[in-house]
């Protein structure tokens, strides 16, 4: 329900406006002075205020400057019996939506009220989306109950509010950008922009321009001034992924940013002041890079003021099941498939894999499996071949590349395709049903 508050000491006019506005679908509140208006605002959620400029206990123009900081989502339209340009200008400066003259502009009140309400709805929608984004990238959305990941989350939470530079360490695919987003959302900068760039994805000259921006004419093709990401992220956070790939001279410019909070655009000589938080990430051993002369030592120690190491998936296998089920739900929804679960033998195989690509590899594997799966459960046959194979010990002595191992895998695939129908599986395999049962017992195949 949209709510309007009318503040006017002329009772007849107030009641008349109330009836008109109420007929437009508004719930209408009334106040004859500012004291009453303040009480109404404390008691009710008001969307739009129509306020007289001259009231017994104050000025509507001053009222705007008091209310807007306290209730920024409320739109205020000022009404006056006398057109006064200076008052109108000051009202707008104070945050009023508009300024109308009583009598002369009565026909404009309802259209103006509706436009103000549109702005209120838009702001509420933006706030709702911001909350959704904040929730999406919050620490609560990082999955895993293992000690290893919980320790990393705990450290990241502590540094989030400290507004210091953070270095995230970990193998490719361990979720470094997810952590960077969560740190940003957990900081006082969470209402400001978050920008990310992979330092290994661009050539040296393009990377410098992308981060620091450039002046027109700085190089061939620089036809106009361009803001870099470090300036776009002003008051917010800039995430520099794969910082170990950054050229030495770019490291020098970033060191200046960290030490002086200013930078110089490509082709410019004038420094620009900036207020930005840097979060960097790498899968490299930066200490070794320093020793090899590939990374500035002073820049490393400036970045490494607070580091968080993210564990590889093979060290937090306890979390594989919950991650796999999360990705299953995500991709089943995207592909409109009714896949409701993962068979136990699939989960066993997922647990046994090394996951050198970490969470990213697991995510891609589940996405592929969902696309291939024709049943309501993820089965072994939808996994890549290397994941369908078991180690020699786990196979009960038979290598996945031996004839026996290959035969076992083939029987498993056929049984999954027939959804456990052994008679049909035996027909497809070209063997008798008794032979199939014997081989299932021999290879310890259960369906």
Question: Care to give the gist of this entry?
Answer:
The protein is of the alpha/beta class. It folds into 3 domains: 3-132, 3-Layer(aba) Sandwich (Rossmann fold); 144-311, Rossmann fold, CATH 3.40.50; 314-442, Orthogonal Bundle (Helicase, Ruva Protein, domain 3). Helix content is 47%, strand content 14%.
Structure explained in plain terms:
With 447 residues, the chain is of the alpha/beta class. The protein has 3 domains: 3-132, 3-Layer(aba) Sandwich (Rossmann fold); 144-311, Rossmann fold, CATH 3.40.50; 314-442, Helicase, Ruva Protein, domain 3, CATH 1.10.8.60. Helices cover 47% and strands 14% of the residues. It has 19 helices and 18 strands. It has helices spanning 11-22, 34-43, 60-70, 85-94, 109-136, 147-160, 176-185, 204-212, 229-232, 248-260, 286-291, 297-303, 320-334, 344-352, 358-372, 385-388, 403-417, 422-429, 433-442, and strands at residues 3-7, 27-31, 48-52, 54-55, 58-59, 75-80, 98-101, 166-169, 194-198, 213-214, 226-227, 237-241, 262-263, 272-273, 277-282, 307-309, 341-342, 377-378. The protein has a 5-stranded parallel beta sheet, with helices on both faces. It starts with a strand and ends in a 5-residue tail after the last helix. The model is unreliable at 391-398 (pLDDT under 50).
Topology:
Layout (H helix, E strand, L loop, with lengths): L2 E5 L3 H12 L4 E5 L2 H10 L4 E5 L1 E2 L2 E2 H11 L4 E6 L4 H10 L3 E4 L7 H28 L10 H14 L5 E4 L6 H10 L8 E5 L5 H9 E2 L11 E2 L1 H4 L4 E5 L6 H13 L1 E2 L8 E2 L3 E6 L3 H6 L5 H7 L3 E3 L10 H15 L6 E2 L1 H9 L5 H15 L4 E2 L6 H4 L14 H15 L4 H8 L3 H10 L5
Parallel strand pairs: 1-2, 1-3, 3-6, 6-7, 8-15, 8-16, 9-12, 12-15, 17-18
Antiparallel strand pairs: 4-5, 10-11, 13-14
Helix pairs in contact: 3-4, 6-7, 13-15, 17-18, 18-19
């Amino acid at each position: 329900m949209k709510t309007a508050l009318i503040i006017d000491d002329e009772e007849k006019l107030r009641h008349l406006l109330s009836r008109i506005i109420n007929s437009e679908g508004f719930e209408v509140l009334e106040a004859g002075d500012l004291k009453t208006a303040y009480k109404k605002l404390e008691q009710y959620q008001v969307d739009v205020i129509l306020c007289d400029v001259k009231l017994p206990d104050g000025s509507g123009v001053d009222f705007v400057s008091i209310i807007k900081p306290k209730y920024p989502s409320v739109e205020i339209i000022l009404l006056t019996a006398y057109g006064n340009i200076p008052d109108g200008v000051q009202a707008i400066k104070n945050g009023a939506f508009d300024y109308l003259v009583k009598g002369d502009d009565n026909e404009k009140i309802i259209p103006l009220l509706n436009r103000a309400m549109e702005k209120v709805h838009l702001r509420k929608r933006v706030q709702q989306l911001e909350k959704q984004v904040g929730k999406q990238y919050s620490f609560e959305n990082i999955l895993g109950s293992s000690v290893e990941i919980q320790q990393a989350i705990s450290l990241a939470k502590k540094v989030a509010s400290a507004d210091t530079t953070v270095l995230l360490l970990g193998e490719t695919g361990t979720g470094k950008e997810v952590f960077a987003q969560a740190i940003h959302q957990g900081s006082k900068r969470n209402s400001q922009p978050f920008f990310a760039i992979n330092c290994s994805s661009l050539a040296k000259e393009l990377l410098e321009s992308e981060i620091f921006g450039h002046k027109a004419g700085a190089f061939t093709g620089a036809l106009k001034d361009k803001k870099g990401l470090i300036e776009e992220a002003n008051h917010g956070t800039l995430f520099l992924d794969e910082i170990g790939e950054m050229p030495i001279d770019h490291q020098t410019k970033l060191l200046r940013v960290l030490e002086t909070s200013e930078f110089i655009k490509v082709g410019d000589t004038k420094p620009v002041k900036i207020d930005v938080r840097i979060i960097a990430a790498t899968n490299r051993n930066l200490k070794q890079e320093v020793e090899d002369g590939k990374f500035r030592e002073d820049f490393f120690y400036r970045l490494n003021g607070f580091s968080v190491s993210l564990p590889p998936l093979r060290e937090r296998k306890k979390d594989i099941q919950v991650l796999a089920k999360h990705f299953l739900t995500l991709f089943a929804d995207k592909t409109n498939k009714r896949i409701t679960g993962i068979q136990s033998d699939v989960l066993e195989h997922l647990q046994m894999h090394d996951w050198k690509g970490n969470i990213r590899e697991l995510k891609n594997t589940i996405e592929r499996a969902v696309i291939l799966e024709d049943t309501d459960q993820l089965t072994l046959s939808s996994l890549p071949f290397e994941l369908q194979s078991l180690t020699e010990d786990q196979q009960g002595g038979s290598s996945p590349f031996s004839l026996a191992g290959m035969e076992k895998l083939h029987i498993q695939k056929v049984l999954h395709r027939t959804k456990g129908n052994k008679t049909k599986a035996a027909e497809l395999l070209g063997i008798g049903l008794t032979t199939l049962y014997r081989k299932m017992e021999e290879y310890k195949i259960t369906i």
